[in-house]
Structure formats: structure tokens, C-alpha cells
Write a structure and sequence with these properties.
Number of helices: 5
Shape: globular
Order of helices and strands: HHEEEEEEEHEHHEE
CATH topology: Peroxisomal Thiolase, Chain A, domain 1
Low-confidence stretches: none
CATH architecture: 3-Layer(aba) Sandwich
Radius of gyration: 19 Å
Helix content: 25-40%
Distance between the termini: 36 Å
CATH class: Alpha Beta
CATH superfamily: Thiolase/Chalcone synthase
Structural class: alpha+beta
Number of domains: 1
Strand order of the largest sheet: 3-10-9-8
């Protein structure tokens, strides 16, 4: 304590009439954050929302654990969401889901009340060599992969049905940037054209809740994404949790 959001409100010099809160949702956090922002604005509780993602998974990685240390990176993003007049919905609809039975497959076991971080738990061997303790990140890669391929194609279909659209109606797909192999398998299974599917892993790796906004920013900078285009954002992973939404690419058309 206190919530990081309270510290950021002070450092940014925002007024005391500004609400601030933290939420922890991992890989699907950006989509969940957009849904919260939309609800606050449309419910009349906010005019503008500053959505921040910040991930420092490096602090959870054991230096000898090759199963995770080559995958995850640290990253952050800032997104401003505000109401504008439009003849179509610029953000939404949303489809969200949770299956807490998968929590043990991607977890830092120590650090809460039942297993305090201050207690030394030694180390245990890793599947691919090296070692980790209960205070380090554990990931069951094969189980995460199976969950993703089983859940995400249906999530995409549900969102398209909710919006009465087809894959051809979406200009660009930005999935959580977990790893290239998983993304390519998802793209092929869902049937998304290569030129409309984003893979942005070379520089930063998997930055958890920051991967989607960082990929959007990179696609805009590279000219792959144009202002006003319809984007599908899909987050999935730790929890297990997942979420997908449609949004309009930022730029002059949405200012």
C-alpha cells in the first residue's frame, strides 16, 4: 500500500477530484482496462480515463530458469479514453471470461498471506534445467498453450457474433503477444490473413498487459494500421482470464 494509482495521480499533478485505482489482471489486463474505462464514461462517472499498464516481470524470474527468462520482458503503456460523438461504437463490444482452475499453471506462489515472500523456501529444479523458488514465476508452457488454442478461437467467434461481423470486416487483429509459435497457430486456426495479423515480439518480448498497446503503437508507426480502422484486441493468459473487444485505431478520425 498505497495503490500505485494514487502515487501516479500525485506525480502527474492531477486534481484531487480524480479517482484512482489499481487492478491486477495480467495478460488480459489491457482489454479489461478498456472495458472498465468504457463503463465509467458511459455510466457518467468519468469524462476521461487514463489507462496505464506496467509490468516488471523480470523481478519474478529466476536467472537460471530457461523456461521463462527468455520469454518475458518489462514494459508499460498509457492510453487516454474519452467520449466523442460518432455514428458508430468506437470501443466495444466486449467479451470477457475467467477460469480460475488454471491459476496454478502460471503463478508466483509466494508473496501472499498463506506463503509469505519473506520466508525462504529454497529452490526446486526446472523442467528445462536451472532452478527456481516459490517466490519466482512458474509457467506450465504446454498447459498454457493447450488452454489458449482451446479458448481463444471461440472467443473471437463470440465477439464477431456479438458485433454481427465477420473476419473480413476487421481490418487488423492485435492479440496478446505471448510468443510467435502460439500466435501463428492461433492465426492459422482462426483463419486470419497474415497481412492483417500483428506479431510484435522482436524488441521487447512478452510484456504481459502492455503487449497489446505496445503492438498497436508499433503498427501505427510502421504504417500497418490506419486511423479509423476497426481493430480486434484479444488478451489471454494468467488467471486464467481472457477478453476481446473491438476498437477504432487512434488518429485524426477519433480526435
Amino acid at each position: 500500500m498505497p495503490a500505485t494509482a494514487c502515487l501516479i495521480q500525485d506525480r502527474l499533478g492531477l486534481g484531487t477530484g480524480c479517482g484512482a485505482l489499481d487492478f491486477n489482471q495480467g495478460c488480459s489486463g489491457y482489454v479489461y482496462g478498456l472495458s472498465l474505462a468504457k463503463g465509467l464514461i458511459e455510466g457518467g462517472m468519468a469524462r476521461r480515463v487514463l489507462l496505464l499498464t506496467g509490468e516488471t516481470y523480470s523481478k519474478h524470474l529466476h536467472c537460471a530458469d530457461r523456461t521463462v527468462r527468455t520469454i518475458f520482458g518489462d514494459g508499460a503503456s498509457a492510453t487516454v479514453i474519452r467520449a466523442v460523438e460518432s455514428d458508430r461504437d468506437l470501443l466495444g463490444p466486449f467479451v470477457l471470461g475467467t477460469d480460475g482452475r488454471g491459476a496454478r499453471q502460471l503463478v508466483v506462489r509466494a508473496g501472499a498471506f498463506r506463503l509469505p515472500a519473506a520466508v525462504s523456501h529454497g529452490s526446486e529444479p526446472c523442467e528445462a534445467g536451472g532452478a527456481r523458488s516459490c517466490g519466482h514465476l512458474y509457467m506450465n508452457g504446454p498447459e498454457i498453450f493447450t488452454f489458449t488454442l482451446k479458448t481463444i478461437p471461440g472467443l473471437v467467434r463470440r465477439l464477431l457474433a456479438e458485433a454481427s461481423l465477420s473476419i473480413e470486416d476487421v481490418d487488423f487483429f492485435v492479440f496478446h503477444q505471448a510468443n510467435r509459435f502460439m500466435l501463428e497457430r492461433l492465426r492459422d486456426k482462426i483463419g486470419i490473413p497474415v497481412e492483417r495479423f500483428c506479431i510484435n515480439l522482436e524488441t521487447y518480448g512478452n510484456t504481459v498487459s502492455a503487449t497489446i498497446p505496445m503492438a498497436i503503437e508499433a503498427a501505427i508507426a510502421a504504417g500497418q494500421m490506419k486511423p479509423g480502422q476497426r481493430i480486434m484486441a484479444v488478451g489471454f493468459g494468467v488467471g486464467y482470464s481472457w477478453g476481446a473487444c473491438l476498437l477504432t485505431a487512434p488518429g485524426e478520425l477519433t480526435k
